[in-house]
Each structure stands twice: as structure tokens, then as C-alpha cells.
Amino acid sequence: MSASIQISPSILSADMANLARDLTRISNADLIHVDVMDGHFVPNLSYGTAIVKACKSATDIPLDVHLMVSNPDDTVDWYIDAGADLVTVHYEASTHLHRTVSHIKSRGCKAGVVLNPATPVDVLEDILDELDMVLLMSVNPGFGGQKFIPRTLDKLRRLRAMCVEHGVDPLIEIDGGVGAGNAGELGAAGATVLVAGSAVFGAEDPAQAVEDIRQAGTRGRASKEA
Ligand SMILES: O=C(CO)[C@@H](O)[C@H](O)COP(=O)(O)O
Ligand SMILES: [Fe+2]
């Protein structure tokens, strides 16, 4: 029996005026994805530590904090202090990536690196064995509700092959335009965690949407392992 794909609903698509209520609607999620945008690294501004703290006090589900910020070294501690369980930083925003990843882990937090759609997986060659997670963006970061970039599937297969070659098994998360319709092929291509914002919070029953995406992803993963 194949391991279940994990689902990390993005609260970017939640109703921020009713965040605690919306979190109760996804109590079956494996992680909560918190998109921090600084209006500089990405052309949008979302929220910061106050929302991470609010999530921490409203749920026991681990917080998966996606930092879309320039110079993450300057602020990463804020998010760890606010309650992040896992922090991902963008390769494109980091000058001293190894130092940043080592620092996050030294604080007892899990660490991951995010790649934008145009960044090849090869850049991770010399840091892959340090990572708890690799996050592949399947849209250009900055906004929810965008269309999945199909080329991500090939990139995902290349990342999976690279992990096998290095004998490592980080979580592999896909973020952007994910739903029950493409979760199967993402699971088959090697994803282990799927972020979904609009597909979850835009659904009439968000918990059912989480379950549908998880089942589709897990079926895809099992079909590959069979
Ligand atoms: O990081 C981002 C966008 O920059 C994502 O986490 C989005 O929030 C995903 O939203 P959907 O594409 O699933 O609606
Ligand atoms: Fe994200």
C-alpha cells in the first residue's frame, strides 16, 4: 500500500476575516500552507507573523510557511518564533542558501527550498541532502488561482531522479494550480505534498476537497509504484 500524499491547503484563498472558522473546515489537512509575500520579491503583499501566530493558536496542524520575500535571512527567525514548523525559502531570493538552511534547522524547524518555474532542479545538487523539503512552484509566485504550468511534471520527474541518485528522500511539494484533476499525475511523477488554495477554499466542502485531492494524488502515486 502506497503512502498517502499529504495536502497543505493554502490560506491565501481563505476568508481572512474568518480565518479560525476556515481552519476548522480543513481539520483533515496534513499541513497548513501560509504564503508570506513582501511586495518586493513577488508583486503582491499578503501577511506576516501575526497570521502565522493566529494559525498557531487556532490549530495543531503543522504550519508550512512559504516565504516569498527578498533576503529571507533578515526575517526567517520572526516566522520560526511565530510558530512555523517548516519554512521554505526561495533559491532565487537567497544569497547564502546553505547558511540559511542550516540556520533554520539549528532552530529546530524543518527547512526547504523553493524553485520558481524557470529555475532548473540542478541548482539543488549540492544542498539536496540537507533539505527536509523541495517545493516546486507550478505557477509564478505571487497569486492564488493561476493555471498549472504543465512543464512542472517533467521537472518533478527530474527532481525525483536526482533524489534517487543522491540517495535522499525529501518531501517534494508542488504549489500552484493544483486540484483533484491533476493530483494523480503529480503523485505519479513523484510529488509527496500538494498545496491547494482555490481548489480547497473555493469548494463548497473544503474538507471533502482535501480528501478528493489526497485520494487522487495517492492513487497516482500507487499506480507508479505498482
Ligand atoms: O505560493 C502561492 C502563490 O504564490 C500558492 O501557495 C497559492 O496560494 C496557491 O494557490 P492556488 O493556485 O492553489 O489557488
Ligand atoms: Fe505557496
Automatic annotation (TrEMBL):
PROSITE patterns reported for this sequence: RIBUL_P_3_EPIMER_1, RIBUL_P_3_EPIMER_2
GO terms of molecular function: D-ribulose-phosphate 3-epimerase activity; metal ion binding
Cofactor names: Fe(2+); Co(2+); Zn(2+); Mn(2+)
GO cellular component, one term: cytoplasm
UniProt entry keywords in alphabetical sequence: Carbohydrate metabolism, Cobalt, Isomerase, Manganese, Metal-binding, Zinc
Annotated catalytic residues: 35, 175
InterPro entries with a match to the protein in the record: Aldolase_TIM (IPR013785), Ribul_P_3_epim (IPR026019), Ribul_P_3_epim-like (IPR000056), RibuloseP-bd_barrel (IPR011060)
Catalyzed reactions per annotation: D-ribulose 5-phosphate = D-xylulose 5-phosphate
Stored CDD domains: RPE
GO BP annotations, alphabetical order: pentose catabolic process; pentose-phosphate shunt
SUPFAM superfamilies for the chain: Ribulose-phoshate binding barrel
Binding of substrate, residues: 10, 66, 142-145, 175-177, 197-198
Gene3D superfamilies listed in its UniProt record: Aldolase class I
Protein EC: 5.1.3.1
CC cofactor note: Binds 1 divalent metal cation per subunit.
Family matches, as HAMAP family: RPE
Alphabetical list of PANTHER family matching this protein: RIBULOSE-5-PHOSPHATE-3-EPIMERASE
Protein's UniProt name: Ribulose-phosphate 3-epimerase
